[in-house]
């Protein structure tokens, strides 16, 4: 771990440029070999100061609404795609101006907005739901029973396909290529008759392509087979894979209390600064932190908010913690900055970049006005 991280004022998110670039090189290689296009899903990572770097390797950005679309268009300026479960009428004219590809979640949305999109020369798609679950976390499963995301085959309306260039599906979350291969088979089984009339198919996100155990050869083979069979452009839109293991959250110990276990209170909060720890839930990786009782001293690490459940997890250390010690949580670029909040008046962590040269630059600091400005 770079020693410079321990000199930084906390709390602070730090993106490691070298690790980010390593991920981008992998993704560019996959895109080249598979003949597909890969987009940054901004819902996972929107640190636009590194968009110029990302844009050297990827084909553009994808958005979940107007604000993300504007960010990708302004800061990367390559292909700009958008999908929303339901578009806001007051925003759609601006969306049409800046987005190359617009995907709709229902045929009702397509009927409402499709002509305006086509008149502007945009490529339009319909999101489909293959109703094939490959994961256990219902909150992240677009194929779960009762899902609002995507058109099922029972609700598919072929008579309304005129003007539709593509189909879009997004069903995965932090998964390997075997889950995608299963999903593609389900898509072909249910929607295969419509694929030959499409120009593109978007395989969505959730592909952990840059993870060490990810089977990239199987992914490439899947895409090549699909392209050869249906003669379509294939898009992938991962978010996590782009900044996976490329960020840290540096925090300091504020106090240590005891209630059946030693509890270290930090200036970083699970509820405010790493909300996926509570929502997923999961135990984030910590540099030099072991499993409970694995090392000599075990602590519960928690935020300093009033939320009783603001707990990051239980970790063990070779040496006892002291007030003022700095801890470095890893894999904190994705779903951290994009989801953080100022509950309890907590200040947002600063944002920094650790450059490949070794230089550590603070990109942005936050303060009281950022908290106050959100409220009234």
From TrEMBL:
Name of this protein: Carboxynorspermidine decarboxylase
Q: Which organism is it from?
A: Anaerotignum propionicum DSM 1682
Query: Which residues, by range, are in coiled-coil regions?
Result: none
Q: What's one GO MF term for it?
A: diaminopimelate decarboxylase activity
Q: Which EC class is this protein assigned?
A: lyase
Q: Which cofactor does it need?
A: pyridoxal 5'-phosphate
Biological process annotations from GO: lysine biosynthetic process via diaminopimelate; nor-spermidine biosynthetic process; spermidine biosynthetic process
Q: Where does substrate bind?
A: 240, 276
- UniProt domain Orn/DAP/Arg decarboxylase 2 C-terminal: residue ranges: 12-332
The alphabetized UniProt keywords are:
Decarboxylase, Lyase, Pyridoxal phosphate, Spermidine biosynthesis
Report which superkingdom the organism of origin falls in: Bacteria
Check the record and name the Gene3D superfamilies matching this protein. Alanine racemase, Lyase, Ornithine Decarboxylase, Chain A, domain 1
